[in-house]
Amino acid sequence: MVKLIHTLADHSDDVNCCAFSFSLLATCSLDKTIRLYSLSDFTELPHSPLKFHTYAVHCCCFSPSGHILASCSTDGTTVLWNTENGQTLAVMEQPSGSPVRVCQFSPDSTCLASGAADGTVVLWNAQSYKLYRWRTRSSVFSIGIMWSGLSSQNLGCFFYPYFRSVDKSVIVYDTNTENILHTLTQHTRYVTACAFAPHTLLLATGSMDKTVNIWQFDLETLCQARSSEGHLKQFTEDWSEEDVSTWLCAQGLKDLVGIFKKNNIDGKELLNLTKESLADDLKIVLTCWTHWGLICSGPSDVLLLSSTQMSTTESLGLRSKVLRKIEELRTRVKFLSSEIPDEFICPITRELMKDPVIASDGYSYEKEAMENWIRTKKRTSPMTNLVLPSVVLTPNRTLKMAINRWLETHQK
């Protein structure tokens, strides 16, 4: 479940961007201002709004530490602000004078990149505020900057969904399955910005309706968004009880979370569960039997017999599903433990490729997964986030033969 917990209506024009630090939310707008809010109660800070830009502010971002905020504008400048007092630290002018559309700090806070409407991308020294280097690509509109070298975080796991806004809604996807988790429809005009808070189940969305909505996700959404594939990257034997609960939710077995927690089932015990232990130790069969007996029992022996049959069928079906999911988990864990070469893994599904194809970005993907990607996420590369020159997919027969040879060896 997702609920709207707060609406900010301080901007006087379209909201262009939202950004979180660990304690603050920043928003910027066509009204030329940047506003700062505390995440504790969403009150605006005393030194907000921040005013310097003479035209629309297109983007704002925090440094990794959260102490510095960068903003960029149609006026051709990128400004650095002290988030504690709102003072201006530096004003950096784009060499070409073109409107600056995006800005982004490097993961180590040493550099800041700014991209302009004429295709120029500038790298600034974030300590000395001096230009480090810049590059121009004609007829290219800079719309996004992404740094590599982030910590070993799989962007396909947990919470990095894909959004659409042309129908005034925000659509939250599970990037592992591409299933729609939620559709948020509170805004009255097109949605122009969205951002997740770090380590907090909050989402901020900005719109042409001049408002910023703050949404809060519950743990059920967390269970939905996490998939078992994401957890298989670590040793299942080391799973905590919470990890097991998350796995149960992802498998559609949320009703069993309480039983598993009550019996302190961690990853190691999960893999060792059997038909007998499910019935004798976890009492799954007995629980269903008693439940149906209380509801369906009556003066008629025929009715009582019928209720007994239903309880047996119901419990056997539940037990069979749990056993099947555990066996699938054992198989996947065993398979992954054989150390599949990275080049055999599809970057989208994170699974062994069966029908690899080469895309125009030069990377290989599972054919069906890449076709779905192009169909649902338009013409962008899953690896670089750049526009694909072509949507033609070429069979990678050499890679397919290598995978088949590896499989033959593995099976032996």
UniProtKB/TrEMBL annotation:
Keywords: Repeat, WD repeat. Residues 239-284 form the SAM domain. WD repeats lie at residues 50-91, 93-128, 184-218. The keyword Repeat applies. Signal peptide: none annotated. It holds the Pfam family WD40. This is WD repeat, SAM and U-box domain-containing protein 1. It comes from Sapajus apella. The lineage of its organism: Eukaryota, Metazoa, Chordata, Craniata, Vertebrata. The gene is WDSUB1.
